[in-house]
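Table S2 (text version). Query chain:
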Amino acid sequence: MNSIQPVSPSKAEIDEESRRVRRLRIVVNLSLSIIAQGNLPYEEAQEIAASARRLAEALFPGKGEVYDLLYRPQFRRLISEVYRLQ
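Corresponding structure-token output:
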């Protein structure tokens, strides 16, 4: 009986994905830090959050929903706090 074996990613593929994840984390953390300073107009803070999402989509095509689950709530919460939104 032939069974289909899942193909394991190579070390190079794993390393590349790790680099992309690390890059996204750095960008998100820097973006959140810049917004937290509160020195930006509201619209610029929104654009920084949108830019971080575009980067995530570029690094991980088709995974925008994952970004929305993990990072969008952080941006919303911080922007609401800094700009005193309800």
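Notes on Table S2: Residues 11-36 form the longest helix (26 residues). Helices lie at 11-36, 42-59, 64-70, 72-82.
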